[in-house]
Amino acid sequence: MSPPTDISGAARNLTDQVSTSLNLSVSPSAAHLSPLSSFDARAARQTAASRLPPKLLKPFATQDIKVLLLENVNITGRSMLSEQGYQVEFLKSSLPEDQLIEKIRDVHVIGVRSKTKLTERVLREAHNLLVIGCFCIGTNQVDLQYAANNGIAVFNSPFSNSRSVAELMIAEIITLARQLGDRSLEMHNGTWNKLSNKCWEVRGKVLGIIGYGHIGSQLSVLAEAMGMTVIYYDVVNLMAMGTARQVPTMQELLNTADFVTLHVPELPETKNMFSTEQFEQMKDGSYLLNASRGSVVDIPALVQAMRTGKIAGAALDVYPHEPAGNGDYFNKDLAPWAADLRGLKNIILTPHIGGSTEEAQSAIGIEVGQALIRYVNEGSTLGAVNMPEVTLRSLTIDEPNHARIIFIHNNVPGVLRKVNEILGDHNVDKQMTDSRGDVAYLMADVSSVDSDNIKDLYDQLEGLSSRIMTRILF
């Protein structure tokens, strides 16, 4: 196994490369930075020289780190993982469950997007798996509880594609208001059909946002810039951006908004949250856009609302059932409603591309790639969606005989006492522990240990009845 590299430097270099190739600034204030004075530059060099580089840790009782990346994970993430010396296998598509089980048996890290289903049946066969990276916002494709109960951390990218999704919503709002999809299709079929009937400006119209998180709030700002009035509904009170206004009930939003956009997670309480009752509460001739999760909208109810003219247009980027790969699959074999949707006027159907931009996928690759490397190399769970968030400062090169103990265990009384009895013969420099539900996560740095000590510590921790997973980095 090649030695791991310093993630902080690698991440900075890769970020710089991506930003340069895409002509992006990685800092909001980058345009306002002035060159360092000679004094500032000298001080910066002295400060940097005084900092000791981090110690590059390697795992005990683990062979070369094997990584499986599915669904065409962006090259930024692939490159970061490869540069660590990990063995990276990359596939452009998802895999059927039986093939996935064969592939996952000996991997330590798996990276997926939204199509791969990491069910209990799959994870049960993943005997070496340490961590899962979801290179997307959602994590509903993973059995999070089973993963946590078996010491497998899960990371995602909650922020990186928010702007891309918000921009898609703006594009679709204008497209629906002007019936651009229908006019374009008519022109492709040779029909010239110039009209203005029921074509609108978006200026002065009311946008109702359901779910005012990262995407909803960005959409709010963009919509206001175009002269729209923004109202939003969320299950928690959230600070409004600009002049947007939170309304107390979803019904009030539906009664008021000309355009309604959905940005909610997939939960039992959001399944079919938009059905016949909600369509009846919407204004006549209003529009619905869904870029959240396919289970949120009752598709047959939407079809009926559009056929009756209650809804003037709709845009869907997600569906209750989606094909596993690209091809001619959006038809009645996928679901009976697919043909119904294709037969409607003024409806935009896109294949789950809300976050599919070069910028978003590059940023997601970096964000999730960094999280995976930090977890594998340092044990940090910051940002994990199913584990307690625990981290310690990096060990440095002047701490050569130190080891980092990571003990994931059932959250039951008496475990810390037993762990500290095992560690008691060594100097514990740092220790942190936290719990989340039935799972607890402990990190401790111990000094003055050699390979025999490490093996003894590992064997003793493995022998505890509360153990879920033991890792030692040294």
UniProtKB/TrEMBL annotation:
Family assignment from sequence similarity: Belongs to the D-isomer specific 2-hydroxyacid dehydrogenase family.
One Pfam short name: 2-Hacid_dh_C
Family annotation (PANTHER family): D-ISOMER SPECIFIC 2-HYDROXYACID DEHYDROGENASE FAMILY PROTEIN (AFU_ORTHOLOGUE AFUA_6G10090)
UniProt entry tagged with the keyword Nucleotidyltransferase: no
Catalytic activity, EC: 1.1.1.399, 1.1.1.95
An MF annotation (GO) of this entry: NAD binding
Source domain of life: Eukaryota
Pathway: Amino-acid biosynthesis; L-serine biosynthesis; L-serine from 3-phospho-D-glycerate: step 1/3
GO biological process terms held by the UniProt record: L-serine biosynthetic process
Reaction(s) catalysed by this chain's protein: (2R)-3-phosphoglycerate + NAD(+) = 3-phosphooxypyruvate + NADH + H(+); (R)-2-hydroxyglutarate + NAD(+) = 2-oxoglutarate + NADH + H(+)
Protein name: 2-oxoglutarate reductase
InterPro entries, per the entry: ACT-like_dom_sf, ACT_dom, D-2-hydroxyacid_DH, D-isomer_2_OHA_DH_cat_dom, D-isomer_DH_CS, D-isomer_DH_CS1, D-isomer_DH_NAD-bd, NAD(P)-bd_dom_sf
Protein keywords: Amino-acid biosynthesis, NAD, Oxidoreductase, Phosphoprotein, Serine biosynthesis
Enzyme type, top EC level: oxidoreductase
Role description: Catalyzes the reversible oxidation of 3-phospho-D-glycerate to 3-phosphonooxypyruvate, the first step of the phosphorylated L-serine biosynthesis pathway. Also catalyzes the reversible oxidation of 2-hydroxyglutarate to 2-oxoglutarate.
Residue ranges occupied by any ACT domain in the UniProt entry: 404-474
